[in-house]
Automatic annotation (TrEMBL):
This is Transposase DDE domain-containing protein. Residues 11-92 form the Transposase DDE domain. InterPro entries: Tnp_DDE_dom. PANTHER family: BLR1914 PROTEIN, PHP DOMAIN PROTEIN. It comes from Paracoccus solventivorans.
Length: 96
């Protein structure tokens, strides 16, 4: 989390609904947009509209993983992987 840098909000699915994660995010000043699990006695409110936007990012990564080089991460350097992901995104965007 520290390597990611500062963030205004973290959008995650129910699998990340843990008190220790929510506490860590609150200490960093980050809003947790995480729906509560069904096992919580009192659900914690979250921004449902922001959570719905998470789907767009997940679909984008799903489309990028159609490119074998991006899915398996052949590149050893982060800059080369970023370049591969950008090229795949350009081709994917161009096909639409």
């Amino acid at each position: 989390m520290e390597a990611a840098g500062p963030a205004h909000r973290l959008i995650a699915d129910r699998g990340y609904d843990a008190n220790h994660l929510r506490r860590l995010l609150a200490e960093r000043g980050t809003e947790a947009v995480i729906p509560s699990t069904t096992s919580r006695k009192t659900p914690i409110p979250y921004d449902a509209q922001a959570y719905r936007a998470r789907n767009l990012v997940e679909r984008m990564w799903c489309r990028l993983k159609d490119w074998r080089r991006v899915a398996t991460r052949y590149d050893k350097l982060a800059r080369n992987f970023l370049a591969s992901a950008q090229i795949a995104a350009l081709f994917t965007w161009g096909l639409n």
